[in-house]
Write a structure and sequence with these properties.
Rossmann fold, 43% helix
Length: 189
């Protein structure tokens, strides 16, 4: 097997700070939220653990209602005030307890929390896959420099659909048809 492909037995989905207060200010919020929903539903279908962070929820609110409603019961939501998720000891502890070497990163903002988390995860020797279609920033011009920096740090660019297809590897996987239905629903606004 190619070592740089996502493996559902080795991966965890990380959803960073998809909070309601960003709905009116984030570039392409609806598209990013749809892709994050696809990631959550796909990860749940494939039995991949999901970690969710919320940046200062007292001031910025909680995870968007559609995403929150799609999370499997008991999915941990880690509150943080640092840009990097790795600055929150609870996050690092939960991630290490999972014992999975791959992290599929989704969420916001690309140039802030996503970028800093990716850099820290790389330093911690995680293989980091970042779903380009499931990340964004308030301003579009902030996105590309962050992507360049993350790739230079060794992150692997992907999309949610690409990552989920890598995770099952074959159309013979029992979840393939269910994933196809999720993909179809995700492109319908």
């Amino acid at each position: 097997m190619t070592p740089n492909l996502l493996d559902r037995a080795k991966a965890v989905l990380l959803l960073i700070d998809m909070q309601e207060s960003y709905r009116s200010v984030l570039h392409a919020w609806e598209a990013v939220e749809r892709c994050c929903l696809l990631a959550v539903r796909g990860a749940a279908l494939l039995g991949m653990p999901i970690l969710v962070t919320e940046q200062y929820p007292r001031g910025l609110g909680f995870t968007s209602a559609p995403i929150l409603g799609s999370l499997p019961a008991g999915t941990p939501r880690v509150q943080k005030v640092t840009m990097s998720c790795c600055g929150a000891p609870e996050f690092v502890e939960r991630l290490e307890q999972l014992g999975r070497p791959q992290v599929l990163v989704t969420g916001i903002e690309t140039h802030a929390c996503v970028n800093q988390t990716v850099h820290d995860l790389r330093v911690m020797d995680f293989e980091v896959h970042v779903a380009r279609d499931a990340t964004s920033s308030r301003l579009e011009r902030f996105v590309e420099p962050a992507w360049q920096r993350m790739m230079l740090a060794g992150a692997l660019p992907t999309t949610v659909e690409q990552a989920l297809l890598e995770a099952i590897r074959s159309a013979e996987a029992p979840e393939f048809r269910s994933l196809q239905q999720l993909f179809k629903a995700a492109v319908t606004p």
